[in-house]
Amino acid sequence: MTRYSISTTVLFTIALGLSRLNAQAVGQNKTPGSGDTPTFSVSRSLVIETVLVKDKSGNPIEGLTAKDFTITEDGAAQEIKFFEYQRLEEIIKNAEPLPPIGVPKYFQKLPSTQIAGEVPGQTQYKDKRLLALYFDMTSMPVPDQIRALGAAQKFIKTQMTPADLIAIMQYAGGSVQVAQDFTNDRERLLGIIQTMIVGDGEGFDGVTNDASSADTGAAFGQDDSEFNIFNTDRQLSALQTAAKMLGHLNEKKALVYFASGLSLNGLDNQAQLHATINAAIRAGVSFWPIDARGLVASAPLGDATKGSPGGNAMYTGQSAMVASSNFSQSQDTLWTMAADTGGKALLDNNDLSAGVVKAQKSVSSYYIIGYYTSNDALNGKFRRVKIALNNGLSASLDYSQGYYAGKVFAKFTAADKERQLEDALMLGDPITELTIAMEVDYFQLNRAEYFVPVAVKIPGSELVLARKGGAEHTVIDFVTEVKDDFGTTVSNVRDKIDAKLTDATAAELAKRRIQYVTGFTLLPGKYVIKFLARDAETGRIGTFQTKFVIPNLNKEDKRIPISSVVLSSQRDDIKDALYNASKDKDKSEVANPLVIDGQKLIPSVTRVFSKSKDMYVYLQAYQPAATSVQPLVAFVTFYRGQTKTFETPPLPVTAGLNNKLRTVPLKFDLSLSKLPPGEYRCQVTVLDPTGQKAAFWQAPVMLIP
User: How many CB atoms lie within 10 A of CB 96?
Assistant: First the structure.
């Protein structure tokens, strides 16, 4: 595979604006044979800024005109083309809550997929405050859902003002649903909330398996949140979708996000968090997260809702520390989203409606200012916006400090297309149009180096889109970059897949996933990997970014040093490998431990297995201090809850590789046909009878018919 350095900065994304307009200058149509001037058109992007202007006392300043403002973009002065003042009634001084309401009528909930837009360049909700109540039902257990819905009802009944318009949105069942568009009809809003099903979507949130986890009888586990690898990404992607919906409106919007925390771990796509925040900034949406758990007094070993942790951690205090750290991390993401979009998170407060009131008070009277940017280059770079008052006026201004320009893929030349993918590695606004899953493993090669295989899965339905467009084939380009803990690029790969698209193959791809495998040779340490994929036919791009750690197994003396454990249901003949950037692919696979007897083991990234196929389990154990290979015993166990449902006979291994590490390959071939479908915990146990050491590895798997 080809490796090279990448160092440029270009962005591929849509231009900012709470709306995006085209101003066209069209000449007279040319008739056949006439000598008139040909028709031409010029497109320019309208950038909308919402500006809060307050005096020293914090009161909005009214009566300003467009002549009182100066706008610059990257230092270049811009001409104001659109100017409007949104006068909102002050909540404390001028506006009184609406009168009490009786028992509301029930309304049939007809979920929509969009917020109604408005005519470009116009404001649909003049002098109104827009609040979107967003319920993430997948992250909240039933008690938290009840508290969140109750807080929304309390706000609508007693704290809503005549200037408020409220929309109700929820994320459940894998999609964002608009239960109610913006309205001030309190009776309808309350009726819609009463139709929302408590428990809808609950139970899909990620779980952890560390020192704070309950002892279920299947101990010695390792990070089982990998089973929920898509969960946090789906939640963030849903928020991004909601922000884009609200972006069709020019006014300032506040999205109140009810959730029971939001945790990002090393297995989640960090690029999706950046993309969600940038989408909210472009759409003029501020996030106001509310932790629906309220004020939590955590017992050191957990409360009565779960079992106590096991092992030494419960006696050393490590269990309580990990539980506290996990809780704080789940709030850190909420705080980050709020701070980066101009909102504020409500944490550790049992009065959840106070968070809605904070969002309400934050939206006071403001000015809407629009200008056609003088920079027509769609180069994807960040453009800094500065707004100031003229004539020596002194006031506090609150507005978006800039935006990312767009990049039109259809206008790229062949050279631009190649450059775009390389440059995208440096983007501050990641593109997440393609769904990507990734698994990063490690195997020790010698005392210093480790081979790191990287497996990626992409939905095959993306190729179907290209086929529908009439394409006979499509090229999927890949760029992978690995940086160390200091931000230095240590390795990168450029590769591609060229697939023919007949009707038969397109139909087959719609049901399957595209698998791509590459690898790096690295030293122990902390790294960040960034992977980009682009369908060259449709122009869709996906980004996956995550952190990973390669441990120094030379320092492991209490347990048996082992590599990553690879679970797979697919082995391909190395001669049939069609997609590889290296001309000398036989040599490039020599160091790959997943190539066994001329066949490459393809990791199952999502760890979902079919009963009709065997499961392959592969790992390596190392005995660097031994003069010769010592016998080991290994076995694989499946747990369902606290019940052991399957266990392989102990596998005695007496032979290993003749190297300085005394590497011992451990291979299992399991038949899953007798196991019922469902979720299991797969545990690999390795024992050293001579040295009286052991190693354990555990991860969730899903078995389907």
Answer: 9
Q: Report how far residue 237's alpha carbon sits from residue 613's, in angstroms, rounded to the nearest whole number.
A: 32
State the pLDDT at residue 20: 33
Identify the weakest region by mean pLDDT among 266-280, 333-347, 501-515: 501-515
Question: Among 604, 439, 605, which residue's Cα sits nearest to residue 531?
Answer: 439
Residues 6+ apart with CB under 8 A from 81: 46, 370, 371, 372
Cβ–Cβ < 8 Å for 579, 514 = no
DSSP SS3 for 676 = coil
The two tokens of residue 109 are 């909930």
Beta strands (DSSP E) in 158-279 are 164-172, 175-183, 253-259
Question: What was the pLDDT predicted at 551?
Answer: 93
Read off the tokens for 105. Answer: 């009528």
Q: What pLDDT shows up at residue 16?
A: 30
Q: Is 317 left (phi over 0), alpha (psi -120 to 50) or beta?
A: left
Q: In the prediction, which pLDDT does 119 show?
A: 66
Sorted by sequence, the CB contacts under 8 Å of residue 66 that are 6+ apart come out as 80, 83, 369
Write the CB contacts of 186 (distance below 8 Å, at least 6 apart in sequence).
98, 101, 104, 156, 157, 160
Region of 61 please: left (phi>0), alpha (psi -120 to 50) or beta: beta
Give the least confident one: 161-165, 263-267, 488-492, 558-562. Answer: 263-267
C-alpha distances (whole Å) from 474 to each of 397, 445, 465, 477 are 49, 36, 10, 10
Neighbours of 52 (CB within 10 A): 19
Confidence category of residue 7, pLDDT binned at 50, 70, 90: very low
CB atoms within 10 A of CB 691: 13
Give the Cα separation of 200 and 141 in Å (integer). 9
User: What value does the mean pLDDT take over residues 175-198?
Assistant: 87
- For residues 230 and 65, give the distance between their C-alpha atoms in angstroms, rounded to a whole number: 48
Torsions phi, psi for 573 (to 5 deg): -65, 130
- What's the half-sphere exposure (Cβ side, CA atoms, 13 Å) at 23? 11
The pairing of beta strand 253-259 with beta strand 129-136: parallel
DSSP label at 685?
E
**Residue holding tokens 């007897």?**
597
DSSP character for 227? G
65 burial (CB, 10 Å; 0-12 / 13-18 / 19+) is exposed
Bridge-partner residues for 566, per DSSP?
A: 618
Per residue, the 3-state secondary structure of 319-352, as one string, reads HHHHHHHHHHHHHHHHHHHHHHHCCCCECCCCCC
CA distance 88 to 163: 6
